[in-house]
Protein: ABC transporter permease
Organism: Neobacillus mesonae
Amino acid sequence: MKLRDQFRFVQQNMKKNKTRVFMTILATAMGCAFLIVLASVGFGLQKSVVKEMMEQRVVTQIDVHGKEVKEGGFRPINKKDIPTLEKIKDVKAVTRRIRLEQESNYKIGNYQGGQETFVTNFPAEIMAGFELSAGRLPKADNEVVVGYDFPLNLGTTDEVDDLYDNKGHVKKKYRYPETLIGKNLEMTVKQLKKGKIVEKKINVTVVGIGKKPTREWMQDNSVFISEKILKEIERFTGTPRGAMLSADEKLLENPDSYEGIYDEVKIYANNMEAVQGIVDQLKENKFENYSIVNELKQVNTMFTIAKAGLIFIGTIAILIASIGIYNTMTMAVTERAPDIGIMKAIGAHPKTIKRIFLLESSYIGLIGAVIGTVVSYGISYAVNFVIPLIIKQAFGEELPAGITFSDIPFILPVICFVICYFVTILSGYRPAQRAVRVDVLKAMRREV
């Protein structure tokens, strides 16, 4: 008997018992839908968590915190380390910043703002992706570049009750109204001397404004000054990085010990695939580092275990449905005993008879898997649409935009089909074996 004829024979037999076959397919479809929807929760939450992590940090960024020394401790990154870091394979740029250790006050006319101040290497910043929304890079020592949000937080010095808007910026009516490009700012730094606060004012010119951050929740209020201005501040404060002393602190005996040391060093890889290789090389060279890849590994491992558990629980539903397939196939063998007897009498091979019943059981399983997969996609869509509405109505809370409760990647239906096919074959194997052992004479008398 040809394979095509075997399929036709299976279809004819299934049509004879439509109700029973339909209920068996329905049970299988429900089991498959349960497996896919249950596991999709793990995939959906993983997708949301990973997306959130990747939005909060630059994926190709690696923070370098220090280098291990022979005594077992760590030292900060200094100028001598930069060439070593830049020579690592697939490194796009190495940015390094020195932070002014006090919040400086910047004033222009009747407007002021206190922001973080840095000294940076602009060629490295440009290679890493730093861009300007207006102006140019500094050329003179007294020229500075400010972050995109700096002008938005330059507010009036007058006392007002409600200065900031809901985005954390100074309200437009209280904000400096003109462009800052080419304008002079008065930078004020402080130090405690002989029990009194002493101030020093330094004039700087804004020549550039950074590009708007890619994420809405991010703010860039930084001010980038020259190394010469930092030296001037250090001479005034008598401390490295212009740190302001408290009443019980004393000036350091050797402030030059901080010379050539960076507060923030970041490596940017050419692409995400290169990050792990760079991290491995940093570890070999005893550099303490951190990248989002470290977190992603842990998160993915945790979710992989969770997804495996959910798939296992979903498989139980398919195993329960397989009982119905076993029952259907056992009854089919009993009802078709005369047909089996005739096939044996005309010389049908036992393997052919076994294959027919295995085809029927797998046919039922695969049809159920197809229906279950289609239904699960509908349920997944409904879950992502309905649950946020329920949470909003029940708890009065807005969920973050883009959160995914259920996600069905292509691999999940594939896993379901494989599990379903394997289970249905096992369910039909015993009845198929029984069909092979049917006695011809008893079958012709309708006795099994």
Remarks:
- Residues 150 and 221 are 4 Å apart (CA to CA).
- The chain has two domains: 3-56+298-444, 62-270.
- The two ends are 24 Å apart (CA to CA).
- Residues 3-56+298-444 form one domain.
